[in-house]
Amino acid sequence: MKSNSRQQVSQRKRRGQRRFRLTALLIMCMAAIPLLLAAQWWRGGRAVASKEIGAITSELAVPTPIVSPVAPPALQIDLQKVKPNEVGRIPIVMYHDIGASSNYDSLGLNISRDKFKRQLQAMKDAGWYPITMRSVALGDIDVPAGKTPVVITFDDGRATTFRTLPDGRVDPNCAVAIFEEFSRRNPEFPFRATFYLIGTSVPFHQKETAAWKVKYLIDRGHEIGNHSNTHRYMDQNAGGWVSAASIQREVAEAIRRIRAYDVRATMDTYCVPGGGYPKNRSLWRYLKEGSEGGTKYKNLVVLKAWGGPSRSPFHISYDPMVIDRIGVMGSYLESQISLLKAGIELQPYISDGDPDKVSVPRSFEKYVNKAALGRRVLRVYDLPGSKSETDPVPEPATSN
Ligand SMILES: [Zn+2]
Question: What is the distance in A from the centroid of ligand 1 to the CA of 235?
Fold first, then answer.
């Protein structure tokens, strides 16, 4: 009995020691993560670090959620110089065809490649910085200090947006290649866009390379958004086709069809064809949320086809159900660029460079929707001479 219990004690001891060694090893591994992350931070800035967090953690194969992320060193900016205003306007630009033919139309649905290049240059020169619609919708606006976020959208998955040549190369004359090349020469204007695809139409009209293209875009951090299944206009209810069931089918079937090209297609920002919303407002909730054929969905935002610069997601009048977009007809975009830059009527969103803080001059504090801040910290600062927005009284949001 005695020697048995001694054995048990020493077994327990050994087990205890083993447990201790394992725990120590685990702690060391966990301690290594912040160090590695900190090293990443110093080496290449937050963008690189946040991208690589996943890779580093999985390399070490440590059980995940115990690790608390390292707080990056506080970002110091001169508020009086940068003048951040994160309830200012965010431009969302809408493209269709680029150089489909020389018949350029007055609606901006087909513009020349030269015009597209000039616009990329003008947006870059204005200090605009491309992010996806999804980032805006989530309030994840990671843009360098002093820059204005811009969302560049391409509708319909058109052939001129992304084309491959018979030898498999990307056509240097398609919009994707032009934009990618522009960003290569201008790293301060990254290659990032949102592509609104239609369920029943082959993305970018080339069957053989469609899946490759969708993957190519997702691999590079672009967003694949939902532009309905059939592209029928919901403000035109011929034959009474618009119903709770048909709207849910339009959203859900498009998700299924586009995800068949790449399951990573997020498809949770919804762009209504032709900007046409159902006339019966009680049906709008199915644009936001629904379920059909076993596919449940929740759209973060619904986008219109026309309008001026959009609201910041932190502004009290931001309405996720009706997001404006700037068309590229005539010189409309060019005039919006200069108006926003001058800040005469509308104030642009100007980033503080810190996605975890929402900075606004004191005269704009009344426009902040505190409920939309989430984990972000509000920073209000005094900016002598700063005007309040010309908006008199914020209009109520059209939906909740
Ligand atoms: Zn469309």
Answer: 14
What is this structure's pTM? 0.80
What domains are defined for the chain? 1-73 (no CATH), 79-381 (3.20.20.370)
CA of 21 to the centre of ligand 1 (A): 61
Averaged confidence pLDDT in the chain: 85
Q: pLDDT (tens digit, 9 = 90+) per residue, 100-143? A: 988 888 899 999 999 999 999 999 999 999 999 999 999 999 99
187 CA to centre of ligand 1 in angstroms: 30
Q: What is the 3-state secondary structure (H, E, C) of the chain?
A: CHHHHHHHHHHHHHHHHHHHHHHHHHHHHHHHHHHHHHHHHHHHHHHHHHHHHHHHHHHHCCCCCCCCCCCCCCCCCCHHHHCCECCCEECEEEECEECCCCCCCCCCCEECHHHHHHHHHHHHHCCEEEECHHHHHHCCCCCCCCCEEEEEEEECCCCCCCCECCCCCECCCCHHHHHHHHHHHCCCCCCCCEEEECCCCCHHHCHHHHHHHHHHHHHCCCEEEECCCCCCCCCCCHHHCCCHHHHHHHHHHHHHHHHCCCCCCCCCEEECHHHCCCCCHHHCHHHHEEEECCEEEECCEEECCCCCCECCCCECCCCCCCECCECCCCCHHHHHHHHHHHCCCCCECECCCCCCEEEEEHHHHHHECHHHCCCCEEEEECCCCCCCCCCCCCCCCCCC
